[in-house]
Design brief:
The complex is a heterodimer of chains A (112) and B (112). With 112 residues, chain A is mainly β. Chain A has strands at 4-7, 10-13, 19-25, 31-37, 44-49, 56-57, 64-70, 73-78, 86-94, 102-103, 107-111. Classes of the chains: A mainly beta (112), B mainly beta (112).
């Protein structure tokens, strides 16, 4: 069985800071996703990538950058953290063209 | 853009009861419907999926899909305290193959 690992598990940042979240998977999945989860709201897609070096914007891409330098890893950068921001960022992967996602455990972000 | 709405927001049932969760979506051409279970501090895990009209049963879980009414339901028979979690409905098959759109979730609490 494979695993999808997100680091760090918790991230505390300051307003205006650039913050990077990392995700690694060993399923050999082609497609990887970054979702944001806020309390009381559905998961919202930030970026996804269908193969190495590919990047596609989701519905919530403003304020974020992403990078897929290797098939196994997908990183997300918050370009300027907003004060009092609190959310969980979830990474997922799936085989090509398939909706069978596997999620990581998430990175919990708090901006002070 | 696909809209996914879940009801109720929260559900409390006694141990052994049937739990019934609902989900409506906006696009009758959506190819797949997925139900995910999310425990606190964890990422969502896929429980069951359905691709065609009708019902599907797996263990204590039954899913009913009615494309004409844009409605899908998840029923958990003999609910257990360990079933207490957030349940997310996700709909796929839009413009980006494989991409899922998520509802806000139903918080299920099963009381011993």
């Amino acid at each position: 069985g494979g695993i999808i690992t997100q680091t760090p598990k918790f991230l505390i940042g300051q307003e205006g800071q650039k913050l990077t979240l990392k995700c690694q998977q060993n399923f050999n999945h082609d497609t990887m996703y970054w979702y944001r989860q806020d309390s009381g709201k559905g998961l919202r897609l930030i970026y996804y990538s269908i193969t190495e070096n590919d990047l596609q914007k989701g519905d919530l891409s403003e304020g974020y950058d992403a990078s897929r330098e290797k098939k196994s890893s997908f990183s997300l950068t918050v370009t300027s953290a907003q004060k009092n921001e609190m959310a969980v960022f979830l990474c997922a992967s799936s085989p090509s063209g398939n909706s069978d996602y596997t999620f990581g455990s998430g990175t919990r972000l708090l901006v002070i | 853009q696909e809209k996914v709405q879940q009801s109720p927001e929260s559900l409390i049932v006694p141990e052994g009861a049937m739990s019934s969760l609902n989900c409506t979506f906006s696009n009758s051409a959506s190819q797949s419907i997925w139900w995910y279970q999310q425990h606190p501090g964890k990422g969502p895990e896929a429980l069951i999926s359905i691709f065609s009209n009708g019902n599907k049963k797996e263990g204590r879980l039954t899913v009913y899909l009615n494309r004409a009414s844009l409605h899908v339901s998840l029923h958990i028979r003999d609910s257990q305290p360990s079933d207490s979690a957030v349940y997310l409905c996700a709909v796929g098959g839009g413009s980006a193959l494989g991409r899922l759109h998520f509802g806000a979730g139903t918080q299920l609490i099963v009381i011993p």
